[in-house]
Design goal:
It holds the Pfam family DUF6624. The protein has 8 helices and 2 strands, in the order αααααββααα. It is mainly alpha-helical. It folds into 2 domains: 102 residues; 75 residues, no CATH class. β1 and β2 form a beta hairpin. α3 packs parallel to α5. The radius of gyration is 17 Å and the shape is globular.
Length: 199
């Protein structure tokens, strides 16, 4: 098994994702719902990574190195159109972490993202979205003190610090608040139902 070639392929998939995101930022299209071109790329990347995982198991650091392991996680985080794949990856990632072959922070982000799509509170407060007052805020979480304790345990900053960082990034990228908050919320619910996140 040529792990080097597989590692290069995973990094190549991640780079395509980053390039498209950058293009959407430049064109001011990043905030305008789930871009069709991006959705297609995310699904294509997820399918290719799924094939790789079937061949080698989870692309852990010991197999593909740190950069490709991190890149695989980014592809999984973005495979939001494939709920079963994301859940399966969370399970495989947890096994890799238990063997010290992946980063626990990655699992925190992945489990939070899955929780948000399943309409459940997140444990680490890693996932953000626009709130009703037009600010970028964490999606619902259980309890601030508990969230900060969990974040500290895996080496993350406080949620308050993270909110500042995320809001600055949104400003730097010129992301704009959705024009119709209610409409966007309804579209997201519809998409989650159609994709199979919620019934």
């Amino acid at each position: 098994m040529n792990y080097q070639k597989i590692a290069e392929k995973i990094i190549e998939l991640r780079n395509a994702d980053f390039e498209l995101r950058e293009k959407l930022i430049q064109n001011g299209k990043l905030s305008a719902g789930y871009n069709t071109e991006m959705e297609q790329l995310h699904n294509k990347n997820a399918s290719e990574l799924e094939d790789i995982i079937q061949q080698i198991g989870y692309p852990s650091i010991d197999k593909v190195g740190e950069e490709a392991c991190q890149s695989a996680w980014i592809i999984i985080q973005h495979s939001i159109g494939k709920p079963d794949f994301m859940r399966k990856c969370a399970f495989e990632l947890e096994k890799a972490i238990n063997e010290n072959k992946a980063d626990p922070i990655n699992l925190a982000y992945l489990n939070d993202r899955i929780a948000v799509f399943e309409d459940k509170p997140q444990l680490y407060g890693t996932q953000f979205d626009w709130d009703e007052s037009g600010k970028m805020s964490p999606n619902s979480y259980d309890d601030l003190a508990k969230v900060n304790e969990r974040r500290k345990q895996i080496g993350l900053n406080t949620l308050e610090e993270q909110i500042e960082i995320i809001r600055k990034r949104v400003k730097d990228e010129n992301q704009s608040v959705p024009k119709d908050f209610e409409k966007r919320k309804l579209q997201l619910e519809e998409w989650k139902r159609k994709t199979g996140w919620i019934k």
